[in-house]
Amino acid sequence: MAEPFLGEIRMFGGDYAPQGWALCEGQILSISENDTLFSLIGFTYGGDGQTTFALPDLRGRIPLHQGKNPSTGTTFAIGEKNGVESVTLTVSQLPAHTHTVHASSQPGTQNSPANAVWAKNTQLYSTNAPDGSMNASSLSTVGGNQPHSNLMPFTVINFIIALYGIYPQQN
């Protein structure tokens, strides 16, 4: 394996970090003991910026390149954390839709609405503007208002960061 750039992040199939690398788990490191790595990543991922800094924490996170998304215009800054693992939709997020109301054009045959549908009655319809609403108990509520998973299909793999290596020169 070629010598890595200092601060380079790679995917690694093992359950440990090889010598000279660290798992990307947000560990707090001493600046005085890792000043060259600190010169590259600063305290972007945490630490106090005076005596400590943090490695990126990619546990349960999907890495995303920094910059402006040309499709949406959304800008993502390096070190930013965003997103949620589960979400509960609000009414405004549901697709516009209608519900069919079933009725019969034949005259009604019973007084109880149990196990029945609306039926024809004498002059059941009006051309006047509506001036009232059905009682809320006339319609049943559906849905459990429970969050659902917001995760895309994934395979877990470790990310490791090079603690030593070639100092990357800027173009």
Automatic annotation (TrEMBL):
SUPFAM superfamilies in the cross-refs: Receptor-binding domain of short tail fibre protein gp12
Lineage top rank: taxon: Bacteria
Cited InterPro entries: Phage_tail_collar_dom, Phage_tail_collar_dom_sf
Domain Phage tail collar: 7-63
The protein's name in its UniProt record: Phage tail protein
Organism: Brevibacillus antibioticus
Taxon lineage: Bacteria, Bacillati, Bacillota, Bacilli, Bacillales
